[in-house]
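Progress report, Aim 2. The chain analyzed during this reporting quarter is listed below.
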Amino acid sequence: MTDSIMTERITPRTLQRMKEDGRKIVGVVAWDYQMARIVDRAGVDLVSVGDTVGVNLWGQSNPFEVTMDEMLVVTRAVRRGVRRALVSADFPFGPLQEGTDSAVRAAIRFVKEAGADMVKLDGASDFPEAVTAITRAGIPVCAQFGITPQTALRYGVEYRAIPSAADQVPEAMKDALVAEARRLEEAGAALLNFTNSGPVVGAAVAEAVSVPVVGGFGGGPWLDGRMRMVNAAIGYAASALDDPPDTYANVAQVTLDAITAYAGDVRAVRQIAGGIPVPPPATD
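Predicted structure tokens for the chain:
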């Protein structure tokens, strides 16, 4: 990767050029300042502040619990850590469903109070007028569709916080989903997030629209880019201790080993790593 690409500030137009040039978009989901600094340094193109922060980081039972004020706090933290990548903030459940005026107000808050570059709307195809109104207000929109936490039941997938990689939209719905993607593009969406697209429907959608199409679980090289939760990519969850996942690292195990070693040093009255020097006990 050249220095000019690494230092260029990513905008929606940058992502559009990447699609036109056949360059894949690298997207991650992150929720804190330190992780945002790390992924930005790694050169990712898109940092999405997901509304599943409550489930994945705070132990909430479902993503509907997270509030607008909480999303603003998390987005501000990520914004402070990102210099190059485009920062997209998820709408929590509520502002979009309450109507167009509510959605525009929420989008403005994300930009003014948290510094977001883009807002992401789950189930946006049900609210095309909101996509258009937010875009008219000068705020780029990422429209999410496919199997999402808010739409899973529509596709016969049992509700849960995050669909699995094995879940794919039915191939029989290809024409309907292509039409949905085109409606979102016509409404003004600058980016589409097609969750659990699968190789058949995903490829058809990416070919049918001119805006970039990225995806998380169930996505693949048939899309214009990929999304992955940082916590999932590095094995951050405590569940990685008992069921080692297919990840690029196992941070949970490294953390357990480190804290176990720290506890051992404290209990044995040994010097701890990073602590102030402790003089040896006096001898007679």
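The longest helix spans residues 251-267. Residues 178 and 204 are 7 Å apart (CA to CA). These observations will guide the mutagenesis work planned for the next reporting period.
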